[in-house]
Amino acid sequence: MSEFDVIVVGAGPAGASAAIRLASNKVNVLLVDRADPPGSKNVSGGVLWGDSLGQVIPDWEKSNMLERYVEAKGVTFLTKDSKISIDFRSKKFGEYKSGYTVLRTKFDAWLAKKAKDAGAMVASGVTVDKIAMKDGKAIGVEQAGETITSDAVILAEGANSRIAYDSGLKKKPTDEKIALGVKEVIKLPEKTITERFNLTSPKMGFASEYVLGFLDGGVKAGGFLYTNKESISIGAVISMGDLRKNNQTYSFNVIEQFKDHPFIAPLIQDGRVEEYSAHLVPEGGMSVDSVYGNGYMIAGDTAGFTFSNGLVLQGMNYAIVSGIVAADSFMEKKGKGPDMNFANYGENLAKTFVMKDMKNFSGIDRVTWSETIHNTIPAIAEDAMLNIFSEDGNPKKHLSQIVLSSALKHKDKRKDLAVDLYRMIRRL
Amino acid sequence: MIEMALEIIVMIKQVPDSSEVVIDPVTFTLNRGAARNVINPADENAVEQALRIKDQNPDTHITVITMGPPFAESALLDCMARGVDRGILVTDRAFAGADTYPTGLTLAATITKIGKFDIIFAGEESTDSSTGHVGPGVAEFLGIEQASYTSNSWVEDGKVYAERQLEDGVETVRMEPPCLITVLTNSNIPRNATLRMKIDAMKRGIETWTLNDIGLKPEWVGLKGSPTIVKSMKSIQEKKREGKKFTPDQMDDFVNELVSKGILKLGDE
User: Fold this and answer.
1) pTM for the complete prediction?
2) What is the ipTM of this complex?
3) Chain segment B211-227, per-residue pLDDT in tens
4) Dist CA B146 CA B140 (whole Å)
5) Which of A282, A413, B79, B245 could form a disulfide with B64 if both were Cys (CB 3.0 to 4.6 A apart)?
6) Do A126 and B194 touch (CB under 8 A)?
7) B29 touches chain A (CB under 8 A)
8) Residues 146-175, chain A: which have Cβ within 8 Å of B?
């Protein structure tokens, strides 16, 4: 007889959602997190896209844990001197769901409290050492030499998957499969933010992704800037390989260069840095051979469930859905004999957007982290825009001529460009 | 050493993490809302000291008490996870706004209700008010001996010994139980709780007592029972400092600027 039905390791969106779902269905669940308050070591850019949380917290949109609703979405290329961007705003973001900005420290503690309120036992400030295995089956978790037993373990420990590595469930990622996220939260008055980003009300927000095509040493990094109620989350996701290669470039240099950019600095001007953090970001889709085994399931970042195509950066919604599906998959097995091999989790997950996106967009990281996206396209675009929008008294050219002549300036990149454009069309 | 069955009570307080507290620039009050709540650091040392005595005297039974809001439960559970046997939260709306006098009275009444005790431990002072009143106050209310500013204590032949850190040395005192000891911050390294101990603590749970349970009158506690009135608070404003940049080829300007500001005096003058 196990002490718990389920032990969930990690109180992030995946783990907390699983625990809420299980506890609400009278399952005896323990949620363990290394931080106290639970979740306070978690980091992400800070937009929760979609409405998957509604599956476990029906009135979540009324929560005061949400910062602003994204009514304006940007995608921006930055070169040293220029900014080329799409700034999409739509009244239709009423009927079509975008996302809410959140501050994770607060938000994740709230999620863990929801799990506790639903009846889960929440142990915080303690780090699980590994999954306890017996005859190839997970029988609980080990901590400080003691085993806490459960019928099933849901592993949702995040991107830095120490337990998964130590328990032999996941190989350490190569530099291509992991990036470093660095982030600052910059305090500004609510009114200033609403005015600076031309937002229609203090409840509405702006979220933009950036290609940072101007960094010292050609380091590849994506930037993000999201508005909270009274602060701005700004940060960069940096290629681990580039950081290592270019040992003069530290991650703080990248975020400083981003913040100092002539078209970013005014947005955060007079703000005070209130918080800084760093975290690993999984890249390139599913990062485990199997998301389940005998007695365990893997959810969220640990399984590599994040999505990035350069236009959107998502993770929390993937985490939430995978956590919920893991919980449901346990409940399908509960009380039906000793079989705890969660092949049903794999099958159930395959029916959701989580696994479908992982499949359909597999290999997209080769595009999003390409030289073409980070340096060649921004340079061509800048050149073309200058040609189109400046007036030098010469006869005007056709758009195709302009783009072609700009592209020809980067002849050396011609082959890469062709390959990457082909990939882009296929993958995006 | 004669082993004896000791009853120890530790008084703790949950405080906002001092590294996260900010002063509201308008009202000059502490903005506690932004900071996470932790056990007052000196109280963690007091709990650890009690646990060390229990390590030496396994029959020891330790009760941890706190007066505070309902969410102070987590602080008590944290202590229980480290090896404390029992946790009591004394909570009541009537306690709100208490200064150190009714706080001491409330804790003393709680201890009286608990009954038998040999040693009471408390942290030397709290990080959020730094008065150091409550521990000694409780000793006075209960009419027992006390040793303050201690870095170590033990029980030998039925006597309680404590080392007090004084300005010019260490004083070892011997007391008859029951007595009260306040413990210095950083006087020991508090132990960590394991997951197993945390689970057990949560399963055992804490007890919650109210004003009714400890038999005090509403006018003796909380704001009504508090003789201290804070008339005003002043926040120290940081001076704005100006900066000016000089490049290496502007060293003359740099020196002249310093001289004109009276910061630098040239030798010949």
Assistant:
1) 0.88
2) 0.85
3) 999 999 999 999 888 88
4) 9
5) B79
6) yes
7) no
8) 146, 148
